[in-house]
Amino acid sequence: xxxxxxxxxxxxxxxxxxxxxxxxxxxxxxxxxxxxxxxxxxxxxxxxxxxxxxxxxxxxxxxxxxxxxxxxxxxxxxxxxxxxxxxxxxxxxxxxxxxxxxxxxxxxxxxxxxxxxxxxxxxxxxxxxxxxxxxxxxxxxxxxxxxxxxxxxxxxxxxxxxxxxxxxxxxxxxxxxxxxxxxxxxxxxxxxxxxxxxxxxxxxxxxxxxxxxxxxxxxxxxxxxxxxxxxxxxxxxxxxxxxxxxxxxxxxxxxxxxxxxxxxxxxxxxxxxxxxxxxxxxxxxxxxxxxxxxxxxxxxxxxxxxxxxxxxxxxxxxxxxxxxxxxxxxxxxxxxxxxxxxxxxxxxxxxxxxxxxxxxxxxxxxxxxx
Length: 370
Hints:
The protein contains 15 helices and four strands. A four-stranded antiparallel sheet has the order 1-2-3-4. Helix 11 packs across helix 14, helix 11 packs parallel to helix 15 (353-361) and helix 13 packs antiparallel against helix 14 (338-349). The protein has helices at 3-37, 56-59, 99-111, 119-129, 143-148, 150-165, 175-183, 188-201, 208-247, 250-253, 258-289, 296-308, 310-331, 338-349, 353-361; strands at 45-47, 62-65, 71-77, 83-86.
């Protein structure tokens, strides 16, 4: 290449480099903003900044599940003034048909098919789809949420703490505290217990901290899902009680097919909640006996089993959450009468319930968990 050609080409190269830097900075800013908002703790909201997208305006958007369990791209949300949502299929009408957009669209088409956007099922699904994530922090719960789950984590970490400290160290209440002590242990007794755990697991002493981090992450995932379940169940119960009252209204009973819809909803909600509660009971039983005869293989087996349930647990909890959120947003604090509630049940609450039911039916067996 001649000197003139090199000089002529320089501005274009500089422009491309500047554009790449700008895009990278915008993407990083979008990630930071998304993480600050706490959307990564959500079951039904996905900050698109976490994905390797090319178009900055898409990276600033979110994908979320509506009350019908349909995935929508939310381009903006101005609070009371409303939000701009559209289906993935509508994006080509808004964006230029470039190679960059086509690549983004392919990723979003995969994302709209996922059952849930919680970080644990996302890890599984993104790995399955081969979609690389540079900022792995986006696939971790926020520190705030992890602290909220301490009460659940205590149940899962108590057997581990008792193995190491014999239950005598009451000041240790979280995996973070435990891990920090492992990394800079100042107790000879703790070192001795760590060696004992390494021998029991059949792994080198140096691999124990990594094992403990995995242990903490697995049971933090259970704590996260259990916390969501415990929040949802009372809301479902309250809704079903209200459903009985609505169905007893004379005017409502004149509505075509309402009673049939009412019975179907009751059956679906009861079947789904009973089934997923049973899954957690299996997890609880197995976690309590895990340390009775633990080794690397038995832990890995349980870890694999729990992770195999991420997608279906996330999907079911996401579905129940968006249903209860939609109901409460419309009728919380005594708003609405029987007729308006019955109309909403027919138009919104029943839509997508079969989808949630089918997710729960597709869950892996818990028989092996005991």
